[in-house]
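HUMAN: Can I see a protein plus its fold?

ASSISTANT:
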Amino acid sequence: MIAIDHLTAIGAGVLVALLLAGAVAMLATGLRARRAAADDAAARRRLESLLEGAPMQPVVVRPDGRVQMPRRVADWFGLDAPADYLDQLAGDHGWGLDAVDAQALHADVQGCLRAARGFLRTVHCGDGARALTVQGDRRGEKVVLWIFDSTATEGEVRTLSAEIADLSQAFDALTGLVEAAPLPIWYRDSDLQLAMVNSAYVAAVEGSDAADVVARGLELVEGAGQAQAGAAAARDSGKPQQRIRPATIDGARRALRLHDVPLPVGGIAGFAVDVEELEQANVRERRFAEAQRATLDRLSAGVAQFGRDRSLAFFNQPFRRMFAMRREWLTDRPEFDRVLERMREAKRVPEVRDFPGWKAERRNWFLQTDGASEEAWHLPGGTHLRVVAQPLPDGGLLLVFEDRTEQVQLASARDTLLRVRTATFDNLFEALGVFAADGRLQLWNNRFRALWDFEEEFLSAHPRVDAIAERVATRLANPQHARFIAELVRYATAERKQRAGQVALADGRHFEFAAVPLPDGNALFTMLDISDSRRMEQALRDRNEALEAADKVKTAFVANMSYELRTPLTSISGFAEMLHAGFAGALTTEAQGYVGAILDSAERLGLLIDDVLDLTQTADSDALERADVDIAAVARTAADALRPSAKRHAVDYTIDVQHSVGRLNADPRRIREVVEHLLRHAIASASAGDRRGGKVLLRAEGNARTARLLVSDDGEGMDADTAARAFDRFADTQIAPGTDRALGLGLPLAKQFVEAHGGTIRLQSEPGKGTLVTVELPRR
C-alpha cells in the first residue's frame, strides 16, 4: 500500500512537474507572442506611417466595385471623404475624375479583374490641375491600384518632351542641312576613323551610300595619312585646322580646302570647300593686277597707288616725270605726306596759305566712303592738273594726275569759236535750224525765226518738227508740202542721209531747202531764198530757147546755102575741066595754070561745103551705120586718097599700119573721114606757105581694148591758145597766128565723129615743132 502511494506520489509529482513545465512553457510562449504582437504592432505602425508618407498610395478595388481608399487619395481626387465605390470617383465642378478618365479607369480595372492584366494610366482630376498616375495589378480577387501624384512630374515630363521634340526637330534639321549641304562633310571618332559622312562626301568619293563609305574608310584625298593629319593636329591642339590638298572628283583634279574642327563631345568634324575656282581666280587676279599695272605704266596720265599703310606701292613713268622725282626715292616707298611735300618742293601743287591743313584734307582721301573725288589743281606757270582720288577696297588710295593744260586752252579756244559761230549763225542770209534725233528744235538763227514769223516763246519751248510743219503750212503756196519738212528731218536723223528740194511760199518767193545729218546725230535744216535766182534762171531759159530757135534757123540756112552753092560750083568745076581738057581749044601755059587754080579752088570749096553739111547734121551714136570694119584697110584707103595731094605739095608721106590695129564695130565712112581730115590738116600744116619737103606720118596700132590712130607733121605748129581752140566749131579765130593758113573744119569734124564712136581725140602742138593728133577708139 505504501508502495502504491509512493508510486502515486511520484506520479503526482511528475504530473505536477509536467504541469509546471507546461505552464512555464505556456507563459514563455505567451510572453514571446506578446512581444511579437508588440513588434508587429510597431512594425505595422511604422509601415502605416511609411505608407501614409509614401508618394504612392494603394487603393483596393473589390470585384463588386467597392473600394478601400486612404484619406490622402480622397484628398488627391478632391473628395470630401473616401469613396466607397469606384463609380464615385467621377465628378464635376472641380472634383473627382473627368468623365473620359473615369470611363477609361473603370475599363482598365474591369480588364484587370477579368484577365489579370496590369495597366498604367495617367488621369486628371477636376479642372485638370492635378495629374495622378494609376498603376493597377490583380491580387487574388481584388485589384490594387497604386496612385501617384504626378502633377509636378508631368509638367517636367511635358517640358522635357517639348525640349526633346525641339531638339529632335533641330537635330533633324541639322541632319538634313548636313545631308543637303553641297560640301563634303564628315565626322571622325576619337580614333580618327570615319564615323559619319553626308551625300556630298559619298558622291565625291564615288561610294554607293554613307554606310559603304564609312565601312570601307574611303578618304576624300589620297592617302589615309594625309587625310587624317589635319584631324590629328586638331585633336592634339584643340583648335580648328585647315589646309589645301588636291583631290580627284568626277575625273577632274580639284583643289580642296580641308577644315578639321575638334568637338566638345569628342571626335573631329570636318568639311571640304572646293577652292579650285578661287585659286584660279587668284591667279587671274594676280595676272590682272600685273596687266593693269603694265597698262597704267603706259598711260599718259600720272598714276600713284598707296597701300593701306599710306606708303607708295606703285607709280608709273608719267607720274615720275610730271613731278620730277627720282626713281630711287620713289622705290623706297615714301609715305603719302612725304610725297605731297616733295611735290610742293617741285612747285607741282597749288599755292595755298595753310599747307599743313591742305595736306590734312588730302589725307582724308583714304577715309572717304562716297566713291572717288575729283579736283583741279592750278599750278604756277599755267599748268592745269585734273586729280582723281579713288579709295581702294583694301584701304589704299589710287591717285590719277592728268595734265589738262592743253585741254583747257582748247576749251577756251572752243568757247571763242562757239561765240564766233553763234554770231555767224545769227547773221547768215540762210535760215537755219538744228533738230535733235527726237525731232525737237535745238538751235535756230534770226533768219529762221523771221522767215516763218515765229514767236520767241514758241521756239524757246523747243517744239517738235511736226508742230513746226503745222505752223508753216499756211505760209506755203501748197500747204501739203509742209509734211516734207518733217520727213526730211526724220530722214536726216534716222537714215543719216542728206536730202534737198525747193518750195514756194504763198507770197511768191522761192526757197531752196536741205536737211543735212550732223556728226552728233542731229540734223541741220537750211533754207535759202532763191527768188532772184529763179527769176534769172527763167530769163536765161527764155534766152536759151530763143538761141536754140536762132541756131536752128542758122543751121537750116547754112544747109540750104550749101545745097544752093553746089549748083554753081558744079558748073564752074565742069566748065573748068572742059577748058583744061581742051574742049575750047588749046590753051597757053599761063591759061593752063589759071584753069588748074580754078579746079583746085573748086575742089577745096566742095570739100568745105561737105564739111559744113556734116557740121549741120547730128553725129551721135544712134546716127552711125555700124559694121565690122577693118581699121587697117580703112586707114590705107584714106591715106591713098590723100597721096596725090601730098605728092603735089612735095610732102614726105609715110604710112605705118600695124596688124594690131585690128577690127572695130564702127561706121566705116565716118572712120575714113576722120583719117582724111587729120591727114588733110597735117599735109596743109607741113606745106604751109612756101615751105616744101615737110613730113607727114600716119601710124595705126592697137591693143585688146582700143585701136589707136596717130597723125603727125613737122609744120610750124600752134601756140597753146590756138591748140586749145583747134576742135571748136566756128571759133572766132581760125587763122593760125603768124600764118595765113586757116585751121578749117577738119579737126572739129574729126572730133565729132570720134566722140560719136565713144572714143577720144587729143592734139599736142608747139610752135616750130609740129603737131601730133592721137585718136583712140574702143573695141566695144
Remarks:
- The chain has five domains: 51-149, 181-274, 280-409, 428-529, 618-778.
- The longest strand covers residues 252-262.
- The longest helix spans residues 2-53.
